[in-house]
Amino acid sequence: MPSPSPVAIAVDAAVRPAGVRPLRIGPVLVDPPVLQAPMAGFTNYAFRQIVRQLGGVGLPATEMISARGFLHMEARDHELPDRLWGVRDEPRPLAAQIWDNDPENLAAVGARLAREFQVSVVDINFGCPVRDICERAKSGSYLLRDPDRVGRLVARVVEACRPTPVTAKIRLGCTRDTINAIDVAQAVEDAGGAAVTVHGRTAKDLFRGSADWDAIAQIKPRLRHMPLVGNGDLRTADQVAEAFRRYGVDGVMIGRGALSRPWLFRQAQAALAGQPVPPDPTLDQQRELLLEHYRKIVERFGVERGTVLMRRYACCYAHGQPGARLFRMAISTVTTEDEFRSVVAEHFPRATMRSHPNAPEAC
Ligand SMILES: Cc1cc2nc3c(=O)[nH]c(=O)nc-3n(C[C@H](O)[C@H](O)[C@H](O)COP(=O)(O)O)c2cc1C
Question: Distance between CA atoms of 190 and 105, rounded to whole angstroms?
Fold first, then answer.
């Protein structure tokens, strides 16, 4: 179990969102029904530990794992992908996300994750718009153009993972002219999928514009019983509560909002329960949290790689804070632990500095 965080907020097991029911993904209870989005390069074990400590997350998820990469690495090097770091030891529930376009690769890796790693949920990525995944590997959101194929892939993984539930994460479609999320979601349901998460943008949108929650809401009445999880642009506890109220989703998933404010889950949980939303941690507490995150990353990756890796998280923590620009400029070149700590001590945003909310896209 992770050590207590300096800014840990106790999770009150009795807290139960009024009017918002816990989500059931097969046999897995997701309570509150607020999921952490898989984010490649960010949602590794260190980040998930931080999120769990702060509380309020119903279902954390790994970064997406290449099924083909998993099988090749194991056969060639007798090693497993870095992205499985912590997965065996971590508390449950936990979802692991995989991607590929080959049913047998997906089935083989899904089954391993379900049986050997005992993950709670196996999620398949049908939403990634990145060129290497889509155009070169013909996976991720490339597959959205063919709902039947999505259905066949899901059915094969469901069969291989049973009784572990299998879910799918999709976008609205490939382009604005070819929105077909209803067809894809129905194909997932017909194939035995236990839930579908819909990011309210098309693949072509990447992260431009805003997520179309009306389009997400239109999917709900077209499903028989499979839960619908909405995703996109949720940055505050009020927005989370509003998503349930206005769009009738069964669950929500939070991505970038939690990179800069990992305590957002705890705040959303309170909002859903009709309780006062806890304030953001003070800037001193945020600094402590950042340093704790750094310790976890360095423990795993060593100082050299860990320091470089931590730069991107540090930028996220500072996002939208006073003095963020100065901090980002300074932290983005650090290479040693001393440099990292002294930049944090000197430049981590202070209430007296001017705000500059330009942040990397991930945040
Ligand atoms: C840096 C980054 C990495 C991402 N990696 C993944 C991934 O591995 N799998 C996935 O399904 N989605 C991935 N996404 C998409 C998010 O899961 C989520 O759908 C998207 O960010 C929209 O939600 P948000 O507005 O709450 O961030 C990624 C997004 C970002 C910004």
Answer: 21
The last residue of one of the domains, among 272, 302, 337, is 272
Q: Looking at the structure, tell me whether residues 225 and 151 fall in a common domain.
A: yes
Please tell me if the CB atom of residue 230 comes closer than 6 angstroms to any atom of ligand 1: no
pLDDT digits (tens, 9 = 90+) for 36-87: 999 999 999 999 999 999 999 999 999 999 999 999 999 999 899 999 999 9
pLDDT (tens digit per residue) in 186-235: 999 999 999 999 999 999 999 999 999 999 999 999 999 999 999 999 99
125 ligand 1 Cβ < 6 A: yes
Active site residue 128: yes
The answer to whether residues 200 and 78 belong to one domain is yes
Nearest CA to ligand 1 atom 22: 232
Q: Which of 128, 134, 174, 363 is catalytic?
A: 128
Rounded Cα–Cα distance for residues 71 and 79 (Å)? 9
Q: Are residues 39 and 62 located together in one domain of the fold?
A: yes
Query: How far apart are alpha carbons 163 and 25 in whole angstroms?
Result: 11
Question: Could you tell me the two tokens for 14?
Answer: 């009795």
CA atoms of 313 and 299, how far apart (whole Å)? 16
Span from the CA of 199 to the centroid of ligand 1 (angstroms): 9
Tally of structural domains, the chain: 2
Residue nearest to atom 1 of ligand 1 (CA): 362
Mutate to test the pocket of ligand 1, among 44, 123, 199, 261 (most ligand atoms within 8 A of CB): 199
For residue 93, say if its preceding peptide bond is cis, omega within 30 degrees of 0.
Answer: yes
* pLDDT digits 0-9 by tens, 271-329: 999 999 999 999 999 999 999 999 999 999 999 999 999 999 999 999 988 889 999 99
* 84 occurs within a structural domain: yes
- The answer to whether the CB of 127 is under 6 A from ligand 1 is yes
Looking at the structure, tell me whether residues 254 and 133 fall in a common domain. yes
DSSP 8-state code for residue 203 = T
Residue span of the structural domain in which 116 resides: 23-272
CA separation, residue 150 to residues 141, 156, 190 (Å)? 10, 10, 11
Q: Which atom of ligand 1 is nearest to the CA of 197?
A: 19
